[in-house]
Each structure stands twice: as C-alpha cells, then as structure tokens.
Amino acid sequence: MADLDLNKQQKLAVCSDERNIVVAASAGTGKTTVLVDRVMKKVLEGKADMDSLLILTFTKAAAQNMKDRLEAALRKRERTEEDADERNRLLQQIDKLQTADISTIDSYINKLVRKYSYRLDIDPEYQILSSDIARNRLRDQVYDQVIEDFEAGEEKDRKLMFQLMTGNNQDENLKKALFGLYDFLGSIEDRDAWMKKAEENSLEERIFSKIERNKEKFRELADHLELYGDDLDYCQSTTTFKNIARNFIVLKNVFKTASTAASLAEIEEEFNKVDRNRLTISSGNLKNFGGNEKYKGVPPYLDLSEAQEALKNKDIINKSGAYRKALKEADIEQFKEDRDVFEKAIPAYKHVLEVAENEFNAKPENECANKTLDFSMHRMFIEEVEKPGGILEYLNGKLENPKEKFNGDFTKINSSDWLEKFVDSKDPVMAADYDAANSLYLILSVNPSDLFSQQQAVKNAFLDLYDRFSRAYEERKEELNLFEYSDLSKKVLELLKDDEVAGEIGRGLKEIIVDECQDTNGLQNGIFERISEAGGNVTRFSVGDVKQSIYRFRQADYTVFNGMRRQADDEITLKSNYRSRRGIIDEINGLFENIMKKEDDEGQGIDYFKEELEYSGMYEEYEKLPEEEKLTPYEEVFLTHASDMTGSETLAAEIISRIESIMNNKSVYDRRKKEIRPAKYSDFAVIVRSWSQSECYFKAFKNAGIPYRVSRSDSFLKKPEIMIATSYLKALEDNRDDISLVALLRSPLYCVNERELAFLRTLQHGSFYGLIYRFRNEHETEEGRSRLENAAEELGLEIGFIETLNEKLDKFAEEFEMLSSLAYTTSPSDLVNFILSETDIVSVFSALPQGSGRRANLNGLAGYVRELEDSGMTSLSEVNEALESDRNLDEVNENVDENVVTFTTIHGSKGLEFPVVFLSETQSSENYNKNPAVIRRDGLFFKSLRTEELEEGIRDYTTDNTLLKVAGLNDEEESEKKRLLYVAMTRAEQSLQVMAYGSNPKNDSSNKSSKPKESKTFLDLICAAKGYEKPEFTAPGFEKSEKAGNSVVPDDPAFDGERTAFAVSDADLISPATAVKKMFSKTGGVTCRTLHYKGEEETEDERVPADALGTAVHLIFEKLDLGSANKAQVEKTAEELCRKGFFSEAVLDVIKDTFIDGIAALYRTKAGRELRQSEDVRREFPITVLVNAEPEEGSDDYTIVHGIIDAMYRNPDGRWVLIDYKTDINLSCEKVLKENYDGQLRLYAKALEAMGEQVESCYLYGVRHHDLFKVEKGD
C-alpha cells in the first residue's frame, strides 16, 4: 500500500513522532503495511538508518517477511531515484538491512546474552532448551528425583495435596501445575513479589470481597422478604415460582446477616442455623439455588403488597362465575358479607391484570410463561364490576333491580391459575437480586471454612514442593550449561541493571518496534522499557490486538498490552478491515459486541465497541455480480447426524459437498490481482479448535479425491514417511524389535509383502532379524537354496519367489548393516541424515503425491533430532524415547503455493487468510479447566477436595471448583475462548461458514432455559450473543456415495489420476485385526452361562454416537483402579476422564445411565476376580505379528495382525486369558457370530501363540447386560 493509499488512522500511525506509540490493529487492518511504511518513512527522511532500528516479531517467518518487504520497498525506491547520492544512500540501507536487528524476541535476547556472557559470568557455549521434548524430559527427570524424597514425609498437608492433584496413580496434573508455575514465574519481572502475593492472597478474601460488593443487594432483599413474613404455606400453595420463593424466605436471615457481616464466618454461622429440610434444594444439586430459575430477570415492577392482596382474595374474585346464577335467584345477602374484602381486592386485581397484559404483549410468544393466556374475560369482569350499575354499586346498596341490570357472563373466568403463575414469576426484587443470592448460597453450601483451611494446606505443600523442584531444576540446568529462553530474558534484565551496559545496548538505537505485542509478557516488556530508557531518545512503536491474544499457554499476557495502551503518549486504533466482505464484518461485530465487554481495573476484558471493524469497500466490484455467482458471506450450518455417520463425518461430508458446489458454481475475488476468477482448492480452509476429529476429515478428503495440506498438525509422527524413518531408528537401537522391522520390510523401501513375511515365519520361531539372516545364509549355498525352494513349492508359491525375496532382503541387509555400524559411533542427527542419504526413503516418498511436503517432513525430523541433541540427548535410546513420548511435533509444509485445501487449528491459522473458511466442530467443548491448580497474576488458587465415605470402607475423592467459579477465577479461560473464536472468524475473506452438529430436543419444553449455561463451546457463545436458546439443527444437504464412504467424488474435468493416488497414498502400514477377523470366525463355539439379554429389540441412544460411547467405555476399563473396581470407583473414573476432556458430558450422562453397573459387574465374575488378583495384567495391549490365516485349499493368503487386546491377564497356571469388551445393543450369541467378534478374539489368541505365549481362554463381555460370552479359541 503506497502512502497515498493509507487511511487516516494508518497515516497517523506511520507519521506519529511521540515517544511511546501504541497501535491497536484489529484483524485485517493492514498493520504490516503500517510497519513497513513507518520504517521507510524514517529511512527516506533521514531520521533513522536500518541498523538503528530494533524490529522484533514472534516468528522467524514474520521476521523474514518483514526483511523481504523492506528490501523490496528500498530497491523499488532506488530504481526510480534520480539523485545519485540518494541512490547510494539507499544502497547502503539495503546493505545495512542484511545485518539489522530484525528478528524474533527470543533470537535478540539470545544475541545479547552471548555478546555479554563475560559480564554475566556464564559459559558462552551454553545450549538452549528450545525443544519441548528435551525440556519436558529434563523436567521429568528432576521431578522424579524430587518427588521421591518429598513423598517420604507423612505430613497431613502433603497427603491432602496428593489426594487433590493425583489420581489413578497418575501425577500428570501435579507435574503440569509445577511446570506451569515455573513457566509463569519465568514470564514476570519480580518473582519474589508474586510468591509473597501468592502466599498472602487467600481464596477466603476473594470470596468475601465479592460478598461485600453485594451488601446493598442483600439489605434490599432482606427488607423485601419481610413482606412475605415466614409464610411457607403461601409458597407451597403457589405453583411455578414456589421453589425460588420458598428458598428466599427460608434464607431471609442469612441475607440480612450478609448485609452487615464483617467476615464470612458470621454469615456461615447464620447459615448453619437454617433448617435445611425447609429448603427445596436437593443436596445432590447444590449448584441450582432455585428449581425454576427460568423466571429470573422478567421485569414485573409489581408492588409485592398488591400482588399478595390479589392472591389472598383470589377466592372472592373466583366467585365471579357464580354471581350470575346467584343474582338471578336474588340471593344477594352473601355478597354483602364479601363487600369490604371485594372492594379492596378489585383494585389490586385490576393492577395485576394491567401489568400482566403489558408484559405478555411486550414479549415474544416463546418467552411467555403461559402461551395461552386470554385476558378478554378478565377485562370484561373489571368492566362489569366498575361500570354504572355494576357489582360494586350493587354491593353498596345503590341498585334496586340487580336481576335486570347486572347480567355479565362470568362463567368462563378462572383467574387463579394465571394469576398465581404471573405473580409468582414476577417478584422484582427476587429477580434483580437472584445472582447475588445464588452466589451466596453456592458459597455457603460447600462448607467454606473447611475448604479455606484445605486451600491453605494444599498451597503450603505445593509451594514447598515447587521450591524444591525449582532449585533442583536450576541446579541441573546449570550443571549441563542449559538455558531456557525465560532464563536468558532474566539474564538480560539483570544485565540491563548495569547502566554502562544498558547505555551501550541502547546507544545508537532510534526506535524499538514490536509486532504482535499482545503476545508479550511482563518480563519482555520490562526489557524493552529499560533499553528505551537507557538509550535516551529511543522511541517505542508497539503494534498488537488484544482480541487476537491466544497464546496464554506460552505465557503471553495481553493485560501487559492493555497497560501499555493506557500509558501511551499516542494510542491509535486501526479499524478499517481490508480482508473481509461487509456481510462477514457485520456478523463479527454483532457477535463480539455482545460477548467482549469493557476491561476491568486489572486490565482484563476487552471493550469491543471501541475496536469494532469497519468495512473498507474492498469488494465493491465483486458485489456487483449476480447473486447466484457470489459466495454467501455468512452462514450457520447446524446439522443433524447423517445415517451411519458420526457427527464429525457428517460435517466433513457436508464441507466437501459445499467445496465442490462452490468450485462449480461460484466466483471469488482475487484481492492481490484485483480480479474475479473461478474458485480453486487453495481458496478453502477448514479451521477447527483441536485435532481430536481430524482423521474424519482427512479420510473424507482422500475418499473424495480432494488434495489437502495440514497446517501445524500434531500427527507428524503418524505420517508414513516419519513412521518409516522412526522405525529405522528403533530397529537400529534394538534389532529384536519385530514391529519396527516388519514396518521397514513392508514399506516402499523394500516392498516385502505379507506372503513373503509369512514364508520367513515358517522357517523358525524367533525375531525377524534372525529369520532374515537365516534365509540369506541358506540362500548362499546350493543345498540351502534347494531347501528354500522346496518349502516354497509345498506352500504353493510361484517359481522365482525365493529369488525375488532374496533380492529384497539383500538390499535391506546391506543398508541395515551399514547403518548399524554407524548407530553407536555417530550422533543421532547424523544417523538420521545417513538414513535419508543412504536409503531410498527420500526418493520413494518424494515420488508420491505431495512429495515435496513429505521430503520436508523427513528433513524436519532431522531438525527435531538435532534440537534434541542440542538439549543434551546424545544417545539413540534417549532420542527414541523422547520421540515416542512426545506426540505433538508439528508437520512441515513447504509447498504453501500448492492448489490444496488447508486443514488447520485456530492456532495454526493465526496470520493466515482464505477466501472461504469453514469453522467446523463449533459444538465441540475443550475442557481447559483440567488442572486442580489455577495460576494467576494475582495469586495461586486450588480446586477443593471433597471426601465421601463409600461402602466397603472406601473413600471417594472428587474435585470441586465451585468456589473458584464464584470468585471469578476461571475468567481468563473464558476470555481466551472468545479471543480464539475471534481469530477463527476473522480468517475469512469472502465466505464464513460456521459448522456444528447436534440433535433437536424431542420435547419443546427442554428448549426452555432461563439462565444461559456456562459457555463451554463456540456454539454456546454464538447462541448467547444472538439470543438463541438453542440452535435449530437441520438434515445435511449432501448425498452419500457408497463408493466414497462419506463423500462424493465429483464429476470434475480437472479430476486426474494423481488425486486418486493421493487418496490412498497414506494407507495403513499394517492391516488392522478387524479387517481379517472373519477368517477366524466359526459357526459355533460361543456360549454364555447366564444370558441377561432376553432378546428384546433395543435401539441406540440418540444423545451421542455409538462409537463415542464405545471409546469412552474402553477408556474407563483401561484407567479404572483395579484395587477398588466397584460401582463408585467406576463412576469416579468416568467423571475424572470427562473432566480431563477425554469425552463430553453428554457421553458421561449416557455412561451413567447405561454402563456404570455393567463395567463394575465384570469384576464380580470369576474372570473379573482373577483379573484383579493377577500379578500380570495388560490393558489396551497393542499387538502386531504375522500369522497364517488358515487359508482355504489353494490359497496362499497370510496377514500381519495389528490390533488392540482390551484386557489380558495371566491366570494362576501362567496362561493368558483374553477379554474383549462390547457395548453393542441386542448382543446375543447369534450376533457375536454374525459380527465375527469371536473371530477377532481367536485371531488375537493365535497371534499371541505365534509369539510363543500360551492362551487359556477367551471371553467377550457385553457391558449393557453384564453378559460374559466364552469363545472357544480353537487349535
């Protein structure tokens, strides 16, 4: 963008001469252009040279992009410059650009430490722990040493901490909390001050301060409730509102005490006087103060005394239906007795009716408490009462002939029903003060005094452990001469305390420019401030957007940027968006104005209204196209499950259908070329919150023949090329590793097929490595070759089989022997490079579709291994262990210009933009709040530990975060969730399609919810912002193809063979057991001693997919503590797994309803009891071995079995017993045989026996009905 193209705000940012300038640059507002233009302006005006500017970014790619753009701008200016001296000056600036400080923050910090290492008294040859793998491994080692000594103590506080922060013999939460605190303290300037604050700031103070802020509400509430007295009979006589009203009245004195109390203990003491039996709140549902909360917040503005008066006298009013008959009979004496009461009730009744009509008519029908209210008869009643000659005049003796004058028809009036509902649901003070009352009840209901004591005890123990860990970890790093980047930042801050050094660093600098400043932390900002001060006149130019701060897990602290904005000499806000169409911008603004509110005193929160996006007019030419040619700017696509598909498969298929439809029918606007053109694959991006369902999408893309790339995939180690390379490393470490050897032999490097592997296995038992060398030794002699050929002939193998196999094994042996000779004489990274250069792995995988990306992945593996070495891992075994333990390496993608669809997470999409974005899986919840510890800028807090005595002397421990929620200590996670959604939505240029799956409730009443639930998902946030109670899910629009599975292969002239090849190029390296189980199934051999399933027809639970249930149940079996495998322990395990995010709350509900009893029942069977008592139990045991599949006569089919044995244990005789779990409906012996489940178990048994093990028996367990089927394993 040339200077003339800059808008007003951009020009202000480019030209500002203030000392401390902060630019709030929303998404797509051209911040990079502003940065480049500002630098160019300073250089061209002679105010700065390139080497006098410190320009810092967060990624190497961003730094390189900045350099490239500056060089391009300088060269363009130099080519058009006529003055020779100025041209020479520009050429000098280009030279200075090459050495200018344009880098990442970490790189600059590292540069300073190495330059001044002599001042810091450290070895300049230090290594940086930049790899997560190496850092975590070193931390794990230190933790293991520290925890062993720490656990030896018997202090009560330590036991309490372990009970809270560990479970199922796993201490991952404790480690994460320790490591998280270490990282957090590495991001702030004054660690000692924070530690003091953490020790002093208590949860009790936070809670009580919240109560104190509501004191006026509690006073108002207590005074108001005096109008009710203590009339619980009144509450019981009413209908819809009775629970809330009753609970308010019962707790009246608690509210009164809360309005004046000087401590929480005073309020708790009053609460303990309450007769809990008078409350309508279930002890099992303490999170809901009132059962009918949906009426909260409806503004009635009724005077309570009037409402009460109308209710008290409703019986008089209800006599109106009898008036007509009584008057006709001239029986008027009874009305004279009611006169005084009636005269008093009618005005109240009239007022209530007036308010009711106004409320009813003002609200949408679906929000009314009663959709069928009819006020006409009530209005007529009032008219008849008050008109001349009406009932009031008659009762006052003014009418002589009532039989003739008074003829109103009241027979249809029944006022009591609507009157009760309306008045009960409309108490204004209860509605206004509901949140304060509910929060107070939540606090008091969990026995806060006990929990506060517990909180302090856990904190003391945790900080004690942290102190030991941090000191040991620092000593270990010093011993190895290792530093983390946070250590280096701390060293630089220490260095800058020396005025001489600080002046030297700042001298010569004109300006410090920091991009993506919202992702800095307090320590980094302190460094920039000190350099700026030391340099004298060094200006600061900071650019960021708090709405895009999504790296809290890397200790980014957006409140630092908020603070900088408040202290800036010149704050400039960029709003004009050059990326997105108006329709997208309007939707984004409408959404985030509702969910991003003004920041608080602590610098948290975002006032979106001040930063809402403005449309730039970029797409005016595009908008002139006919509607049928243009993309839909914004669409919400909420789908029900397609038949025989999971929700994620449904979304993937719908996305594929939409991609093909757009490519065939729509046009896009190329912003860079400023032209309208047909859509292509690279215009599309699928953005998800996490990788959990990514395989569904990859499979669908492959089946449809759609090329795609993965941005920052955490499935790097699962890529075929990487699996082969790591298999080589494992086999070189241990040549008895059959799984790795088989993977290598079957790979495209050596192409040994399953028949050939099966033939090798017939030679002898033992490892494949030994089989290979026996075969080759036999083949070297004529006699041996003859034996091999005879053996092949007996198996019906073709002529030439032996020679072909020998060629393959010779090639393997030659390369493997050469690499083996290097394995322990060279570094692991050099060994990887030898694998890449001395075998065909690079050329083979480069020849496949997306070959350059695969080659990049292989080179990336070499880089990862090199990082591990730099971090102190020098042995092959250490590297293999590290690669095996870390499953979150990033995929390398070199070919960003390929015409492929991009699939990425939100974090991976940061900084990218696409014409069409599918924001998918918005219904998916990510459980951030997994850890019992909450680390904040203002202190350290913990969840509570609840202890319950169960049967059989078992104690149940569960965590509870009620107090943390009430205190607002989970607000940072909620805030980041909103920022993640903002980043995702602002990636779209021309079409944003928000995707979710779910089901519509069967009963409309379930859709009525008064108070919005906690926003666990993006879909929740969207619904809350748009006022949806629940989204409406519709059937998907695609047509399912049997050939494509869950997608349709398009009839596209551009479709070619390469795409077809790509669709199958990532086939599994080893066949799954489920693919061959039919070979081992029989017509009988399955028995069940007591069959609980009686043959009734069952249907799947529609609340969650069957596969999700099966996965969850298997996970519970895997993680269950066998020491106490009872129902309570099963339920506890299920809840803990749900809290950790392994499955959703919807799945948990179905498990509790259907499977808890069945899981526990297994361990009451003989097999289950033996399993619990066995000293050798394997759960989720992976097995990969080659077996003869008992082929039919004339067949030479062999297979490699790869599967998971659910559970296996050695019985007292030393033999294995296998158990397979099934969650199927209608599970009978017949179904076991029909589905070949018996074959799968027999296959596993045969696989184990082929490995030299002995198998006693096999069982299949039907979890739904507690049925244990015995499967005869056969010969």
UniProtKB/TrEMBL annotation:
GO cellular component, one term: DNA helicase complex
Record carries keyword Coiled coil: yes
A GO BP entry: recombinational repair
EC number: 5.6.2.4
GO molecular function list: 3'-5' DNA helicase activity; ATP binding; DNA binding; exonuclease activity
Pfam families, A to Z: PDDEXK_1, UvrD-helicase, UvrD_C
Domain UvrD-like helicase ATP-binding per the UniProt entry, residue ranges: 4-581
Keywords attached to this entry: ATP-binding, Coiled coil, DNA damage, DNA repair, DNA-binding, Exonuclease, Helicase, Hydrolase, Isomerase, Nuclease, Nucleotide-binding
Protein name stated in the entry: DNA 3'-5' helicase
Taxonomic source organism: Ligilactobacillus ruminis
